[in-house]
Amino acid sequence: MKTFNLLLSSINDVKDFVNIVSNYDFDVDLTSGRYVVDAKSIMGIFSLDLSKPIKVEVHSDDCDDFMNELSKFIVQ
């Protein structure tokens, strides 16, 4: 499992993010505060506080291509 933070600052960012995540078979969870949602759920993502970075948990060890596609959203 890999964990990192990302920032989705616009509606288009959320749409692009969900399209990328949906191409992969493994599970990805987003955590904001005490809420955890499926990263493939656009409605779930919009229920989070998008003004702050969101914690991402990727339930796979073989996710280098996935991480490369998300590099524009990743923050430290």
From TrEMBL:
Pfam families membership: PTS-HPr (PF00381)
InterPro entries per the UniProt record, alphabetical: HPr-like (IPR000032), HPr-like_sf (IPR035895)
Domain HPr: 1-76
Gene3D superfamilies tied to this protein: HPr-like
SUPFAM superfamilies: HPr-like
Name of the protein in question: HPr family phosphocarrier protein
Organism: Candidatus Ornithomonoglobus intestinigallinarum
